[in-house]
Write a structure and sequence with these properties.
Structural class: alpha/beta
Order of helices and strands: EHEHEEHHEEEH
Strand order of the largest sheet: 1-7-6-2-5-4-3
Length: about 190
């Protein structure tokens, strides 16, 4: 049995301030936030397929949510939408899985960073910085560990009811950080 995870998804996520011409050098990049309600695993997987249409080589996607929130289900939809090889399953015990494209698109690199305690230094052996330019890199539990990989990144926070419940409802908050994600809201409409 796996140890319980303390989910950062339940925490308040500050939205980065928008950069302007008067912002000092090193200001936080602009952010676009989209919140959606998903009521079934099928809808979560469909959201992944829709999101895959927006993704491109070099994109970093960071997933946060309680155990069973739907992070791997969303990633399975991303894999389907990207047309990658192999079943997308949780990389919990292997840390990372690479799914090559079957359609001349980017590979999907699926990482579970939960067991990796340190920041990017501890993740160096995974060579994510080498994979990122030609792949879509999806990191579960990546908050505080992989932000340095890219100024432009997509944070996906999945919030679900906790406790003894059969409620399938999820609130999914997509936070596109950086200019790359300026059209996120329109792309998902």
């Amino acid at each position: 049995m796996e140890a319980p995870h303390n989910s950062p998804a339940a925490e308040t996520v500050p939205e980065p301030a928008g950069a302007t011409d008067t912002d000092p050098v090193g200001a936080v990049p602009e952010a676009v936030t989209v919140t959606l309600t998903v009521t079934s695993p099928e809808q979560m997987q469909d959201l992944g397929r829709r999101l895959a249409r927006v993704l491109a080589p070099g994109d970093l996607v960071m997933l946060t949510g309680e155990l069973g929130a739907g992070k791997t289900t969303l990633t399975r939809g991303l894999g389907e939408g990207l047309g990658v090889r192999g079943a997308v399953t949780s990389p919990t015990f292997v840390i990372a899985r690479v799914h090559p494209s079957l359609v001349q698109g980017p590979a999907l690199v699926h990482v579970d960073a939960y067991r990796l305690g340190g920041g990017l230094d501890e993740m160096e052996d995974l060579d994510l910085d080498v994979s990122l330019p030609e792949s879509v890199v999806v990191v579960e539990w990546g908050d505080g560990k992989v932000e340095e990989l890219s100024e432009d990144r997509l944070r996906v926070l999945i919030d679900r009811a906790t406790g003894d419940t059969d409620d399938e409802r999820r609130e999914v908050t997509l936070v596109g950080i950086g200019a790359r994600w300026a059209g996120l809201r329109e792309a998902l409409a």
